[in-house]
Write a structure and sequence with these properties.
Elements (H helix, E strand, L loop, with lengths): L6 E2 L17 H10 L4 E8 L16 H4 L12 E8 L11 H6 L2 E4 L18 H16 L8 E3 L12 H6 L3 H14 L2 E4 L8 H16 L3 E4 L6 H18 L12
Parallel strand pairs: 1-2, 2-3, 3-4, 4-5, 5-6, 6-7
Helix pairs in contact: 4-6, 6-7
Bound molecules: zinc ion (ZN) (2 copies).
Amino acid sequence: MRYIADHDFHFHSTISPCCHDENQTPENILKCAKENGLKKICLTNHLWDENVKSPVEWHPKQRFSSISSVLPLPQDDEVEFLFGAEADMDYEYTVGVSEESLAKLDFIVIPTTHLHLAGHTVREKIQTPEEAAKYWVIRLEELLKKDLPWHKTGIAHLTCNHIMKGRAPEVIKLLDDKVLYNLFEKCSEKGVGIELNMKTLNLSQEEKAIVLRPYFIAKDCGCKFYLGSDSHKIEALKNSKENFEDIITSLDLKESDKFLIGK
Ligand SMILES: [Zn+2]
Ligand SMILES: [Zn+2]
């Protein structure tokens, strides 16, 4: 059975410093999810837990106390609305979530690919695709060494533009098949979710092949996938469905490939 696009486990609300749409409230998000026929959604504002030490100064709006201010989330008979977070990883590979917060979160997404945040996630600004590819691998390797509740953890936007602005395909091309197999076999063993939100619509066959290669390898390793639009505005949330369907078709995903939180 074809994978059903019935959920979205990564998006932001006005709590996130990078969300500039005042309409991106939990109430409007829920309404929009319902219109898109979604059954389960998870709010994932940026988090750096105030109880986790870091040499980096994170935005005060990323504190757990700040992201918790949305609670209780509105609910609906047709849509389950979960409370999650996008927990960052600093340049010492510490993940910004404490055990106490983890217990209160339904789900976390961890971006190993926020390589654009020089001084935060990487010490210095990345200059070349080779350097970006190196950190792409190291940060994912380091994440997989952690002791995390993998059944409620996802790895965010692995092929996003943050890996190198305007040059992400060049970076992805540098990732070796064998290295990817090794990493995704570990992901599969742990049962961590792999996020899907890369833009595949309107790409040429050649461009599509580049961006999809890591995901085909992940699928081959038995990884499970979830959809996460990473929307920061209502318009993006509304328009996410068409691209989700294109990803599902492109990767030929079945319901058995779906990551279910907590399963
Ligand atoms: Zn992100
Ligand atoms: Zn995000």
